Amino acid sequence: MTTTGFSPLFVQRKSFIELDGRRRAYALFDENTATELVGPFDRAESPWLPMQGVAPQSDDGCIVVKGKISGKPAVAISLEGAFQGGSIGEVSGAKMVAALDLATIDSKAGKPTAAILLLETGGVRLQEANLGLAAIAEVIASILELRQHAPVITVIAGTVGCFGGMALAAGVSSYVVMTREARLGLNGPEVIEQESGKDEFDASDRALIWAIHGGEQRVGMGLADELVEDSVDAIGSAVQRFVTAGKPAQHRSEQVELYRQRIADLDSSRQIDPLALREQWKSLDSKGGTR
């Protein structure tokens, strides 16, 4: 006797979060179309980590895979959250920029190539501070260039989340897909608590963290586009839809006045309730929309 028939669908699904960065990237592509660029056997390692007693990784935690999604050219750039918290250094940043720029060249040549950013990252790699900051600036510039020609789709699944400078990269993407387990924010909870104290933000309060940074909240406020379950099929389907849709009529980051006004309307004299804020912004979206 088996218990298969009694297992909930959630247990039977193929989890996207449980895949490593390389398998996440390959899972998005049409069968037999994916090819990795500058893979681990090319030994593109950080030269700075060994100087500080940190073992490097042969792909510097950045996986670049090119192929087709729903028959359309695409490139996926996946950050391995298990290596240095998915942080960006000189080499991983250079790989991201090169992949985005090649997609832009192809797009300008009449072959629109979407980019999918699988972001599990705390931002800049502290061991390569200035180089990491410069790399993130170049990544954002490359996204801004590519998104004029083809969609740039960010996927944040969990469990590392997306913070720091790479949250800015997510912010200028064409579309953002998140799971409920995912988090998105400029500063992580631990950083806020460290700098401003526990009264400002209790980093041990998981309910508070997900109420502010979690995928459900970000999508509910219109700061991300689609909330999906943690499954390869659900995330793959969302990516396929956005690749097929192409670039949006207007990017969220271009709506500067809209968000300036929303921030100006906030009452900072009292503690803002995340759920109330979500409902307030959702009602505003129904009247004018962020898209």
From TrEMBL:
GO biological process, alphabetically ordered: carbohydrate metabolic process; fatty acid biosynthetic process; malonyl-CoA biosynthetic process
UniProt keywords, alphabetically: Membrane, Transferase, Transmembrane, Transmembrane helix
Domain CoA carboxyltransferase N-terminal as annotated: residue spans: 1-251
Pfam assignment, any one: Carboxyl_trans
Domain of life: Bacteria
InterPro entries, alphabetized: AcCoA_carboxyl_beta (IPR034733), ClpP/crotonase-like_dom_sf (IPR029045), COA_CT_N (IPR011762), Malonate_beta (IPR017556)
GO molecular function, one term: acetyl-CoA carboxylase activity
Residue spans crossing the bilayer: 152-177
Protein name as it appears in the record: Malonate decarboxylase beta subunit
Originating species: Edaphobacter modestus
